[in-house]
Design brief:
Distance between the termini of chain B: 74 Å
Order of helices and strands of chain A: HHHHHHHHHH
Shape of chain A: rod-shaped
Distance between the termini of chain A: 102 Å
Oligomer: heterodimer
Number of strands of chain B: 22
Number of strands of chain A: 0
Structural class of chain A: mainly alpha
Radius of gyration of chain B: 22 Å
Strand content of chain B: 35-45%
Largest sheet of chain A: none
Helix content of chain B: 10-25%
Number of domains of chain A: 2
Shape of chain B: elongated
CATH architecture of the largest domain in chain A: Alpha Horseshoe
CATH class of the largest domain in chain A: Mainly Alpha
Largest sheet of chain B: 11 strands, mixed
Number of helices of chain A: 10
Largest interface: A-B, 24 and 25 residues
């Protein structure tokens, strides 16, 4: 009802108090009059309450929405991380498989270039040991220089020095160990230099680095 | 009497040898197979020089020439190798020798077949390999000896424990990475229109000659140990190159006319 109409009705009721239409109607009129004659302060108080309820409801809805979105987002993140882990595992397992060099190197490049999938030293060593393809071994070996502070990597290189025959692999290994300059590594290089069966190119390389 | 018998024996031996030589020559002519559907071929254990030529006629043609051909024996061919194929059109030439002999295997193959030559392990054959006009994937592995590849598209993969490599690309395939690891002088020529990225690992001091068309090498004529990257025509498909000693030449040849 419009405000102007409310005042009109209230004045009419004041002006016609004798008009009784029964007790229930009287009560109704009394309530209506009471309501219509409510002071603006009361109305303002009701308005404040309404605003307060609206704000509370908004905050509540926002909170529910935020929690729901957060849950869904973290679920998605976990799902993505799980997918990346699966992809990494798949790539590493498929690398040594019976594929051509081209296929293996393509998978290897995808592994190392993807910022989400990632790789670590153990996986590089796993790739190296799981394949006969020298191109792939070299690709893995060339990345190990980022992990030379890890003891496992040093141990791996020192063991491989004694077993590896290919000069193409031995020379990069020698360079990695020389740069690391650990005592155990340098001793391993000296032992390699003393072996007779070492490839001439490896011997020349060891002489050139002057152990 | 004894002398006469002895002379007769020598004459007989000569005749047998000459007859054997003739038989081999005749036998060689038989090794031509036409209308083949070759997906790939792998070659191993051939003692001597290998010359491979790609052809557009879908033919396998094998001739063996040289001073020591008559010494070859074994294999169904009598020339020291077997030729076989499986149901997936993968062919195989399996040789019987690991040494260097004065023979040359002149092999003509369909130029779109994948070619793999694997002389790993204890193979001591150091005679040169010359491969010309093969347009498919090429994979080469050997312990020692020089390799020359002309007109390649690839992808090309070379592992050579000791020997020089000359590689002229007709076009640099974008299918996947190329990979060269050779302990010797390396000379690679590209078409000026090729797009590629060179990822070079120098494991010792290397003399470098590089064409001006390569972008941002920022390197001098002598490379120290380390990793270098530069591209040609801003390409992204990698050529993974491992250089161990000697000279490295990367250049573009004069554009060939179509």
């Amino acid at each position: 009802m419009k405000r102007s109409d409310e005042f009109k009705v209230a004045r009419m009721l004041d002006e016609l108090p004798e008009q009784h239409a029964g007790a229930s109607m009287d009560q109704k009129f009394a309530r209506l009059k009471s309501r219509l004659s409510s002071a603006p302060e009361v109305q303002a108080k009701h308005r404040s309450k309404r605003i307060g309820y609206s704000i509370a409801a908004s905050i509540l809805m926002f909170g529910i929405g935020f929690l729901l979105a957060n849950y869904l987002h973290s679920d998605r993140i976990e799902h993505l991380q799980s997918a990346y882990a699966d992809m990494r595992s798949l790539l590493i397992q498929s690398l040594p498989a019976d594929q051509g060099t081209n296929g293996k190197l393509r998978a290897f490049d995808h592994l190392i270039n993807s910022e989400h999938i990632g790789y670590n030293a153990d996986e590089l060593i796993q790739i190296y040991e799981g394949t006969e393809d020298e191109n792939l071994k070299l690709a893995a070996l060339n990345l190990l220089d980022g992990f030379m502070d890890e003891q496992d990597v040093m141990s791996f290189l020192e063991e491989r020095l004694e077993e590896e025959e290919s000069p193409l692999l031995l020379i990069p290994m020698i360079n990695l160990i020389t740069e690391a300059k650990t005592r155990k590594g340098m001793d391993a290089l000296k032992r390699l230099e003393d072996q007779d069966a070492v490839h001439p190119a490896v011997k020349d390389h060891l002489k050139a680095i002057e152990l | 009497m004894k002398r006469i018998l002895f002379m007769l024996l020598i004459c007989m031996g000569y005749q047998v040898s000459a007859q054997r030589q003739k038989e081999i020559t005749d036998f060689v002519q038989k090794w031509r197979i036409e209308n083949v559907s070759m997906r790939s071929i792998s070659i191993s254990g051939l003692p001597g020089t290998i010359e491979i030529t790609g052809n557009k006629t879908q033919t396998i043609d094998i001739e063996v020439v040289g001073e020591e051909v008559y010494l070859l024996q074994g294999g169904a061919t009598g020339l020291g190798f077997m030729l076989s194929k499986d149901k997936n059109e993968h062919y195989r030439i399996q040789g019987m020798g690991n040494q260097t002999m004065d023979v040359t295997y002149q092999i003509s193959l369909p130029d779109d077949a994948e070619l793999s030559i694997d002389f790993g392990g204890q193979n001591n054959n150091s005679a040169p390999w010359k491969i010309q006009g093969m347009k498919g994937e090429i994979r080469l592995l050997r312990m020692k000896g020089d390799i020359e590849v002309e007109g390649a598209i690839g992808p090309v993969s070379v592992v050579n424990y000791n020997g020089d490599l000359k590689l002229n690309y007709e076009r640099f395939s974008q299918i996947g990475p190329h990979s060269i690891s050779s302990l010797g002088d390396i000379s690679i020529h590209f078409d000026p229109r090729d797009e590629l990225r060179v990822e070079l690992n120098a494991h010792a001091e290397i003399k470098l000659e590089i064409g001006d068309e390569f972008e941002d090498p920022d390197v001098g004529p002598r490379l120290t140990k380390g990793r270098y990257e530069f591209s040609l025509n801003q390409g992204s498909n990698p050529l993974k190159l491992q250089a161990y000693k000697g000279r490295l030449i990367l250049n573009t040849k004069i554009a060939w006319e179509e």
